[in-house]
Amino acid sequence: MYNPYFGFFEAPFSISPDPRYLFMSERHREALAHLLYGLQIDGGFVLLTGEVGTGKTTLCRCLLEQVPEHCDIAFIFNPKLTRQELLKTLCEELHIVLPDGIGGLKALFDRLNAHLLQSNAKGRKTVLIVDEAQNLSAEVLELLRLLTNLETHRHKLLQIILLGQTELRDIVAREDMRQLAQRIVARYHLEPLSRPEVGAYVRHRLAVAGTRAVLFPPPLLERLYRLSGGTPRLINVLCDRALLGAYVQGKAAVDRPTLESAAREVFGPGHRSRAPAAVAAALGVTLLAGLATVGWQLAPAPLFAAGRGALDSRLAAAPLPADATPPPSSAPLPVPATGVPGRDEKPVQPPPSTPPTAPQTQEHEPPPETPLEPPVPEPVEPPEEDVAGPATEDHWLHEAQAVRALFGHWQAAIRQPSDLDGACRQVEEMSLRCLRQQVDPQSLASLPPPLILELAPADGPPFLATLLARDEGRTRLVVAGEVREVALAALTRRWSGRYVLLQQAPLARSRRLTLGTRGADVAWVDLQLARWEGQQPRAGDPLFGTELEQRVRNFQQAHGLLADGVVGTQTLERLVRLGTTEMAALAR
């Protein structure tokens, strides 16, 4: 309903597990790495748990898009099955033909084992993924454990990935599940988003849906975090209702009353008194900090100093509520006089100048006390270097400045307006082409500058910057027309993994590639087609053979061209435009 009003081409906060909208927080990256690891190892269980709505199923959908060619996947999303029903479902997922009347456990088990042996002989790997695995019965879990016993002399025949809510951790920790627990080779618990990640999450989904407009002002994101506790599904529901409310009222963005109204619709009228778990934890840690300060005033200093390191680390990691302001370190925290048991006594008086004589004992006198020294303050580490975003929120200006920095390196004269999409169309006339890729952010050190990078600051919208040079752990960066020097590690932390570069198009416009052609031009066509297909380019002799001819036909049919298998002018232009069209998401 509100999509055209805000400029979306689809709803940005749908609760369906669409991998395109997956926001890869640090926790989600680690969780996906565990799942990908599960596709590579040989046998055993991989366990991914998390609270309701944290994104486990969406991560699984993302995993399914990255399954290697040699893997066969069986996905069970309704685990409330008997043992026979689970085996039948597994056979159906693997396209195992079952004769009529077969239904016994042994017969199903034998059929499955025979199929897995055949797949292994062909070099294929079989992976079973079970969603909502906390609903599996003890009998079915034991059956899954027995399935991991299927093996050859060298390989396990079945890898199992279990996705479930927090209760699944408690189930596998039971004494009667110790045999299954010993076969878990990797496990990860997915936590909700942090406060800065909530803002980045909202901006990410808005951008994927087609807009970079600030529809949720920064002060509102704090309230959104406290309402949702950082749970992505709750964020989606709240934002969807809030955008609908803003649309009905004719507002250009969501404001606080609209968000509160959406929260009442989602949670009911009593939502104000229901603090999310993450907020409750933050409030509890803040209270603990206050009591610890009071204790320092009343208790001997060495007692507090003994546990100071662990307490400081917890306080540093805990989010601080927006309405809580820490007391100045120079002023003691006042002790409440009423309302707390044990606080009605008189204040503790300072000790007299001459301490009272210690009571005598029949054994021997205690050794003299060592004077108490104040705790030595721990050294304060300098703040970690970070990449700050532009001072203004003029996204189009920042994009134009990043484009000029990149294209200027190639001495490519571009006409105004110099947005990324328009600039890439212009440089096609100069035998240049734009390529857009998304890779692991840790690979930044291996990419040759200059590049346009998409960066996501800790608290602010994503922006484009141009990497000009890199040397010995330092980088030179253009941000909003300003040249900065930034540590490579800091830049890697803020990089989304998306980049744009310029390349010289190797293929002459007037040349036609046909069956039997060899050379670098053929290798370039193979590379472009591989990127379009989502596959790896071929290795070896760059020959235009029958396989490449068929791939060219497929490409031509998909783009409405004459499917003759010949790379002519029109097909070439489509191949060159691959990088430009894929890059449109960064340009908008």
Automatic annotation (TrEMBL):
Gene3D superfamilies in the record: Cysteine proteinases, P-loop containing nucleotide triphosphate hydrolases, PGBD-like superfamily/PGBD
Domain AAA+ ATPase: 42-191
Ranges for region Disordered: 319-389
Regions crossing the membrane: none
InterPro entries in UniProt: AAA+_ATPase, AAA_22, ExeA_AAA_ATPase_DNA-bind, P-loop_NTPase, Peptidoglycan-bd-like, PGBD-like_sf, PGBDSf
Pro residues biased stretches: 324-335, 348-358, 368-380
A GO term for molecular function: ATP hydrolysis activity
PANTHER family found in the cross-reference section: GENERAL SECRETION PATHWAY PROTEIN A-RELATED, PHOSPHORIBULOKINASE _ URIDINE KINASE FAMILY
Listed name of the protein: General secretion pathway protein A
Protein source organism: Azotobacter beijerinckii
